[in-house]
Every structure is written in structure tokens, then in C-alpha cells.
Amino acid sequence: xxxxxxxxxxxxxxxxxxxxxxxxxxxxxxxxxxxLGISRPSVREAVRVLEAMGVVRTATGSGPEAGAVIVAEPxxxxxxxxxxxxxxxxxxxxxxxxxxLLLESWSAREAAGRELEADxxxxxxxxLDRMDDTGLSPEEFHLLDAEFHVALSGLxxxxxxxxVMTSLRSAIHGYVLAAVPNLxxxxxxxxxxxxxxxxxxxxxxxxxxxxxxxxxxxxIRGFYQAAQLAPFGGEGGTA
Amino acid sequence: xxxxxxxxxxxxxxxxxxxxxxxxxxxxxxxxxxxLGISRPSVREAVRVLEAMGVVRTATGSGPEAGAVIVAEPxxxxxxxxxxxxxxxxxxxxxxxxxxLLLESWSAREAAGRELEADxxxxxxxxLDRMDDTGLSPEEFHLLDAEFHVALSGLxxxxxxxxVMTSLRSAIHGYVLAAVPNLxxxxxxxxxxxxxxxxxxxxxxxxxxxxxxxxxxxxIRGFYQAAQLAPFGGEGGTA
DNA sequence: CTACCGGTGTGGTCGGACCACAGGGTAGGG
DNA sequence: CCCTACCCTGTGGTCCGACCACACCGGTAG
Lengths: 239, 239
What we know:
Mean pLDDT of chain A: 92
Domain HTH gntR-type (chains A, B): 1-73
Largest interface: A-B, 51 and 51 residues
Pfam families (chains A, B): FCD (PF07729), GntR (PF00392)
Strand order of the largest sheet of chain A: 1-2
GO molecular function (chains A, B): DNA binding; DNA-binding transcription factor activity
Keywords (chains A, B): DNA-binding, Transcription, Transcription regulation
Strand content of chain A: under 5%
Organism (chains A, B): Kribbella rubisoli
Oligomer: homodimer
């Protein structure tokens, strides 16, 4: 048993038992070291891991914002894990895209079947309005695009799936952007994407689950085919 | 910019550029510290993070197995992130189960639509045979059960989804086990689960995607309802 | 009453030291 | 000549003590 794991187990146990809550603070590194009978460097290694896992946020200084504060940020660790494993080339980009397709089509179906608050849709709509600006560069456009898709999957109400979607989009971002030059006419593509987005949102708002899901599937598939990316054989959503 | 991040970026860049491959080794901690102009403790913090992310495996001693070896182990970090965030109670168990349902039904549909090698199915079948042993405790049974479901999702051929499934199962394990006492007759339930497993595998082998998917959905839903667990309203798979 | 300014506690970093471990080269015995 | 036992070397694992930068907070001077 390595020493830093003592800290990890201690923190996990404290979380599970409710002794630590979001917004709470870990004891100081020196205190923790003394309590567990280990050295400060060992404690620091554990805190770094917790930070990388999105469980704490550290800050120097004093006051309520300083120290190791408990947070709940699952997106950044998921993104980091994805990025690193994509870098090893042992995680095919095709699998990532396929997973995205699955999660998004499900989210759209689910969201269309729920009672949505008006302000939930407002955020997504605002993004679409901003995407109407024809002066946007492909990169700016795609950032808004990604944000829209993430917002859409958030409407399904499953925080895990929303978090995974966010990570997937981050991981895919560079990949998609690199393929923009493959498109024969970017502006024409953008026009098509805008229309499809509106259509998807309308289907979600109108409570048409199957239509929303198939629109999303077609929307994503269409773009990847146009950009000559990731030939993926899987279904993703409902056929 | 914190010092340990220098190491993370360096390693990620080396991975992306192909200077580091699976099976390769990181420079020694002392060497790395000198190269980046930082101290060894800073390097160690970064290595710990990489280890927690499943990118390296560290070992003492000498020889080809010692040092920080590059590996590709996405499952353990995903599991750890899930466990920690479940402990914070900011990740509802219902969402985890719902996600599992989605991934598994998709995997079953996908697997049934593929050409499978005989030995791919062998592993799953072997697990089912072992589960026929009536002397198994609920915990032993459930471990095999989880392994079977993971193997099943592996048949779809998407390593990301398979990895996520493995993590979800680990996260759910304790939760499910704690609910076994809720079951009026464990042995009767086990008999039903065995039959359903065989049926699912048959549908996958027989190339019946929709049947496989709906069997899986019913299989999972049935168990959760019997154990009076996680009332989840979502669809998960195709309705 | 206000503005300044040090005290105090936080994480961030560093250098050095020692330990346990495992492999490989070497010196010794057969 | 071969085999065995030993020691040397390099690895990560751990620890100590120190100093820095930072941010709040309280006392103090105006």
C-alpha cells in the first residue's frame, strides 16, 4: 500500500460518510500528513490526484476560497483521460465518434419526451442565434456548434451522459477542425448545419422523440461524410 | 502554470508525436526533473497523476519492467472518477444505471449485427457455464454476472464503450449487492437471470439485433424492479 | 473612521538524504 | 569450463526541513 493512497481512501471515506461535502475543505496538507502519519510530499501527491479527478480545487492564500476545496467537476478528468488515451493511439477516434452519436441521439430522444422548462431551451436557442452570424470563422462556429450539442444532451437530464458528451466534444474538437479544409464549400455547409440545428430543436420542443433522434443522427452522419471523416459502421442510434 | 503540468504536457506531446509508445518508458524521475528544470517532487506529482489516469504504471527495481512504463489502461481512471463522484452524491445512481442500460442495449444490438468470431463468444459462454453452479454466493454470482455483461458489450467492438461499461459495472457493484436482501427468493431470481442470459447470447449469436437489445433492456429492468432499486424514468434503449 | 501594513496560515517549490527493491555483472567455487 | 552467490547500480518510495508567493485579517497610525 503506497502512502498517498491512504489520503485517497481517507477522502473517499469522508465523502461517502458525509463528513466532507461540496464546498467543504480538506485539512491543511501539514495537518493531514500528521494525522495519517505520513509526510507532506505524500499528501501532496494524493491531493494532486484528487485535483486531477475533479474532486478538489486548490488555491493559495487564505480565506474561504483558499486551500483544497471539495468540488464536483467530472468533466475535466473525463476529458483529460480521453485526450491522453487518444494520444496513445489505443483509442480509435472512430469509437469516440460512434459513442458521441449514440449518446446524442439518445439525448435528443429523451429530451423530446420530457417536459422542458422554457429557460432550458433558451440557452440552446441563444447559441443558434449566435451561429447565424456569417462572419464567424470555422473555429468559432464549431465551438458554438459543440456548445449547442452539449446543451442539447443536457436537456435529457442525465448528468453523467451530459458530462461524457462534453468530454467527447472536447476530444473531437481538434479532429473536426482539421477536417474543415476537406469541405468543398464551408459556407454552404454552415447554412445546412444551421437549418438542421433549428429543425432538431423544433423536434425536441415539439415532443417528437423519434424524429429528434433521427434528425440528430442524420445531422452528425451527414457532416462526417461531407468532411470525409471517420467511416464508422455502427448504428449509433435507432436505425 | 504549475510546474508539474510541464511534465504532463511534455508526456502528452511525446505521446502524440510518437516519441513515446505503449511499452516504452519515461525517463527517470531525476532525469526528467533536470531536463525540465524542476525538482523531483514536482515530477513525482505529475507521474502520480499519469498513473491515476492509467497512462503509466510504475514499479521499483531495475530491468525492463521497472520505472514508469507507458500503458493504456482507461478503465481504472474511469472507475475511480465514477466512484469518487458517486461518493459526493452529486452523481445520481439512477443516472449511472440509465447510462448502463443505454450502453448495454446498444452493444447487444451492435454485436448481433456483426460477424463474430467463435472464440469471442466462447468467453461469454464460459462465464454462463460457471454461473450455473448453484453453490455460488450472491456476490460471486454477481461478479460473474457483471463480467458477462462486460464481455457482451465488448462484442460490439467499441473499446470506449466497453471501457465505460466496465467502469459502470464496478461502480454499480456494491449498490446492487446491497439490494439482494430485497429479493424475496434469491435462488428463483438466479434461475431467471441464467435463462435470460442464455436467451440474450442466443439472440446475439443468431444475428437478431432488435431482439438482443430488447432482451437486454428487459433483463436489466426486470432485475432492478425485482430488487426495488432505482426507479428510472428514462428509456435507455429503443422502446 | 479610514487607510495602511505587518502577522499568519495556505499551497508551491526545492534540495538533499535515505530506504527497499530488482536486475545484471562479477568473482568465486565446483 | 560452468554454475552459483554476491555486490554494484539504478529505479521508484519516502521523508525532512526550508523558503517562497499569496491572500486574508487584525492591529495600528493617521
